[in-house]
């Protein structure tokens, strides 16, 4: 409950403040969002598994976002930014799928 | 994950594993399980749990913030793209209008030149020039003739999905055929949608558009021709007219020929002048700039100044 409220508060804050993203950070934003979503679905799944751990969640969130950004940055420097971004999205996408499948099983027993 | 967390003696439910589950059957974040294990062994203090929870809440706020920012960013990028597109469209429209204005001005100036010339020349020479101009398409002409109207078939096909190849359209070759048939039927002057044809005019297609002398024309197409009274009859007996009638019948294009009195055909735009130069003049450049246009005498050493540009 608190988590959902916090999420909503963040959204409201983002809409209200309407910050402009520096041009240098713009390529990392979508990847960061996908990485964050991965951490969130992992957390939700852990919650439903009743093994949720705050520290684990925070660390996985931050490291996911940072590592994803780092990989994209490295890719940009090596000239394979697009392909590496695709790779990151695919891996994270598969992980999200796996977690959502687990969540689905918890919620719908199917 | 298929083990009951309470560990009761219940036959574990088996789920038909889909591909992705199969791929990642092992826990995705072993850290959670490890942390749970640790907690069971050594429960953390209340203060620590509280602070950890606070951090989680902060992270979730940050996440919501991130989502909102990313969403807004994506939304902001989108109008940028369509703006660039519509900006280009506006520029094209503007340039087209400018071109129209300039060519209208050129026409006016040319008429002015013609008047001045008529005033300067003796009567018979001026009359001869006017006849030549009328014949070559350089001057505006009036007279009776026929108007051939061609139009694309009305579109039954879905314009959005583009099912099929769209409705049958008038092709540039149709316009070419009609123009040629009119010439051979005795037309003295022809214009397509107000574009006067000359001896050097082109009727071409570029993608879906039809270009007459490199100016796009759009349907319905009206080919107006001035000529003798027998022209309509002769045109309708021509092979091209037969062909077009048949095409119209089969595809639903519209094709019509009617006589029209007192047509006015405009002068053709800017004539492309090409000069022949006498060979063997001492300082003449060895061919190559045969198509220099008047006014733009790039090399000042041109042997004969193109007198008057006509």
From TrEMBL, chain A:
Keywords associated with the record: Cell membrane, Membrane, Transmembrane, Transmembrane helix
Domain of life: Bacteria
Keyword Cell membrane: yes
Predominant subcellular localization, coarse grouping: membrane
UniProt cross-references to InterPro entries, sorted A to Z: DUF1290 (IPR009709)
GO annotations of cellular component type: plasma membrane
Transmembrane intervals: 27-44, 56-74, 80-103
Keyword Cell membrane: yes
Topology of this chain in the membrane: Multi-pass membrane protein
Subcellular location: Cell membrane
Family of the protein in this entry: Belongs to the sbp family.
Name the record gives this protein: DUF1290 domain-containing protein
Organism in which the protein naturally occurs: Micromonospora musae
UniProt lineage: Bacteria, Bacillati, Actinomycetota, Actinomycetes, Micromonosporales
From TrEMBL, chain B:
Keywords linked to the UniProt accession: Membrane, Transmembrane, Transmembrane helix
Domain of life assignment: Bacteria
Gene3D superfamilies hit by this protein: Protein of unknown function DUF881
Keyword Transmembrane on entry: yes
Basic and acidic residues bias (residue ranges): 92-117
Low complexity biased stretches: 276-310
Any one annotated GO CC term: plasma membrane
Region (Disordered): 76-117, 260-310
Family listed: Belongs to the UPF0749 family.
Name of the featured protein: Uncharacterized conserved protein YlxW, UPF0749 family
């Amino acid at each position: 409950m608190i988590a959902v409220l916090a999420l909503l508060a963040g959204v409201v804050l983002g809409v209200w403040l309407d910050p402009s993203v520096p041009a240098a950070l713009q390529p990392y934003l979508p990847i960061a969002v996908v990485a964050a979503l991965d951490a969130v679905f992992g957390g939700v799944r852990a919650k439903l598994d009743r093994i949720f751990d705050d520290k684990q969640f925070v660390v996985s969130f931050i490291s996911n976002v940072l590592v994803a950004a780092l990989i994209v940055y490295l890719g940009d420097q090596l000239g394979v930014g697009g392909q590496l971004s695709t790779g990151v999205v695919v891996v994270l996408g598969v992980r999200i799928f796996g977690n959502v499948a687990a969540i689905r099983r918890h919620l719908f027993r199917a | 994950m298929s083990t009951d967390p309470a560990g009761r003696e219940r036959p574990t439910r088996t789920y038909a594993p889909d591909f992705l589950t199969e791929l990642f059957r092992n826990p995705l974040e072993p850290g959670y399980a490890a942390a749970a294990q640790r907690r069971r062994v050594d429960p953390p203090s209340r203060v620590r749990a509280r602070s950890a929870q606070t951090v989680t809440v902060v992270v979730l706020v940050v996440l919501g913030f991130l989502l909102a920012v990313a969403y807004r960013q994506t939304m902001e990028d989108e109008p940028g793209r369509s703006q660039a597109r519509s900006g280009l469209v506006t520029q094209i429209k503007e340039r087209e209008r400018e071109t129209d204005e300039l060519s209208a001005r050129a026409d006016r100036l040319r008429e002015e030149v013609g008047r001045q010339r008529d005033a300067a020349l003796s009567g018979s020479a001026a009359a001869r020039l006017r006849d030549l101009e009328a014949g070559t398409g350089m001057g505006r002409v009036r007279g009776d003739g026929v108007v051939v109207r061609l139009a694309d078939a009305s579109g039954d096909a879905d314009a959005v999905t583009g099912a099929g190849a769209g409705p049958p359209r008038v092709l540039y070759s149709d316009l070419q055929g009609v123009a040629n048939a009119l010439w051979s039927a005795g037309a003295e002057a022809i214009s397509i949608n107000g574009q006067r044809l000359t001896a050097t005019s082109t009727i071409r297609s570029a993608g879906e558009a039809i270009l007459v002398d490199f100016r796009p024309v759009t349907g319905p197409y009206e080919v107006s021709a001035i000529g003798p009274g027998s022209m309509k009859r002769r045109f309708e007996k021509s092979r091209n007219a037969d062909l077009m009638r048949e095409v119209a019948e089969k595809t639903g294009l519209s094709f019509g020929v009617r006589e029209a009195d007192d047509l006015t055909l405009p002068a053709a735009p800017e004539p492309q002048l090409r000069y022949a130069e006498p060979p063997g003049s001492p300082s003449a450049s060895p061919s190559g700039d045969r198509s220099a246009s008047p006014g733009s005498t790039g090399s000042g050493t041109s042997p004969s100044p193109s007198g008057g540009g006509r």
